[in-house]
Amino acid sequence: MKKICAAILAMLLVLGVFTACSGAKDEVNPEILGVKDAAAVEQGKEYDALAGVTATDDKDGDLTAKIVITSTPALEFVNGKTTPTKQGTYELVYSVKDKAGNEGNAYTTLTVTRSISEETSYKKYQFGNTDTSDVDDFGMELIKSGTGDATLALTDGVMRLDVKNSGAAVGDVKLMRQEFKPVAGTEYDVIFTMKSSQNIMFNMLANHNTKDGDTAAWAPIGSSAWNVAMGSKYQEYKLTFTVPEGENENVQLIFELGKHSMNDVSNPDSYVVDILYVKVVERVGEEYPESVFKTDFTAENPGMSMSNTALGSVAFANGKAVATITGYGEAGWTNKLEQDTTVNIVKGKKYRLTLKMTAKNAQSGEFCIEDKVTEYQARALYDNINLAAGEEFVYTKDFFAEKDVENTSMKFYVGGASAGVTSNEITVTEWEISELVGDKSEDKALYRFIPYSKASEWDCFNGRESDIGSGMGTMYEKDGSMFYRVDELSALDYGNKIFVNKITLEKDALYKIRFTIKANKAGKTWFILNQLDTSKFEPTVSEVCNLTTEAQTFEFTTDREFPLALDFELVWSFGQGYNTEGDYLIEISNVEILKLT
Question: Any idea where the Pesticidal crystal protein Cry22Aa Ig-like domain is (predicted)?
C-alpha cells in the first residue's frame, strides 16, 4: 500500500513539474496611460505629475501605485508631486514593473517658467479711431439723372451704392470713373467684385473718348456688356479692353445701375450694391499657347482612369470619356478621375489648363496638376471647380507652376454629392495643358475699401486678392469692435484671415495675449502668434478656438522668454478646415497683450 501511495505521489510531482514548465512566460510590458508629451508649470508652484495617469498590466492588473518618476535634471517627487524652484526644461521618465520584471515607460517634457510677480498692459488695441485718409476709392463717383436717387459711401469694408430710387431709365443711377488713363497698345482687365441686395440687371461699359475734351463721346470698346445680371452673391464682372496706338488715351468706366427694363422685367425701385474689390491687370507683350499634352480619347489607352478607391468606373467612346460614379462613400472625396501625361512641368513657367466637362448632377471638387505618386508634395496647380447640372463646364486657367513636376498627372478630386444625389455621370471631352510662350508680362493692382491706411497695424487677407484661388471677405470697425466678414470660404486655412502686421515683444519676459470674440454662427478660428523674418513656420502660440454666438474671452501665454526683442504677427484664420461655409461674421474686441515679469 505504501508503494502504491509513493508511486501516485511521484506521478503527481512529475505532472506538477510538467504543468509548471508548460505555463506561458509573461513577456508583456505594463502600459502607462495619460502621460502628456509636454507640460508647463511656474517655478515655485506644485506640479502633480500623476494627475490623470494610470498603469495597467495584463497579468497584474492596476499598477498605478507602483509608478516611479525620475527627472533630468533631478527633481524630487513625493506621491507624484514636485515643486520646481529653477526655470528650465526637465525630461521626466515614468516607469513601472510587473511581478515578472517587465517594465513599461512613458515620457514627458516639463517646462518650468519664471514665477510672475507683475502683470502689466503692454499693448491694447483700440477700435474706432483708425486713419482712413488714404483709402483709395478708385476714383468712382455717383452720377444721378432724372428721378434717380442714391448715395455712395465707403462703409462696412465695401464701397456701397444705396439706390433709394432707381429712376425711370437704366442711366438714371450711374457709377463712373471719368478718367482711366491706359497705355496705348496695352491690354487691360478691370475687374469689379460686386453683389446686390436684390436681383438686378445693369450695363457695364468701357467708353473710349475718341474726341479730345468731349466727355460725351460714345464709343464702347472691349468687353462692354449690356443686360448683365447681378445677384446676392459676390461675382467678378470684368471689363477687358485695349486702346489702339495713336488714339486718345482715356477710357471712362461706366456702370449703369438705374431702372433697367427688359422683357417686362424691371429693376426694383430700391436696392443696395456693394463693391468688395476692384482689380486692375495690365498685360504687355505677346504670348500664345503651345500644347504640351492633350488627352486623346480615341487612343487604345487614353491613360485616364478612376482611382482604386473610387466607387465607379470610366469608359471611352465617340471621342470622349464617361466617368460613372455609383456612390460617394461616408466621408466624400472617395472618387478621383486622373490622367497620366508625358509632360514635365517646370517651376516658374506659365501654363494654361483647359477643361471641358459635363455633369449629369451638380458636382464640386478640386482639380490639381501634380506628381502621380507624391501628389501635394509636388503640385503645380490647385483650384476649386464647380460643375452645374447638365451644362457644359468650360474652364481655362493660366498659371505659373509652383513646383517642378516630372511624373505629371492631372487629377479631378471629386467632392461630395450635391443635395439629394447618390450617383453621377461626368462626360469629359477635353483635358489639355499648354505652355504659354512669348514675352507678355502682367502687372496687377488691387483696390480694397477696408477702413485702414497703408500704415495701419491691422489688415486682412482673402484668397481672391492674390492668385491662390478662393476666399473673399472684408473688415471694418463699429461700436468699439472690429468685424471680419467671410463672404466666400477659402479652400485654404489661411485664405480667410485677419492679422496684426507687426508687434515687437521685448526680451526677458513672458507675454499673455487676451481677446474677446464671437460669431454669427458656430465655427472656429486658428489663432497664432508667429515670429516674423524666419525661414520656418514655428508659431510661438498656436491654438484653435471654438466660436459661438456668445462672446468668449481667450487667453494664451508664451512658454519662453526671448533672448532679444523680436517681431511677431497676430493671426486669426477662418478658412476651410476650421469652417464649412461663408456668410460668416466675426466680432473681435478687447485685444490686449500683457507683459509678465
Answer: 38-108
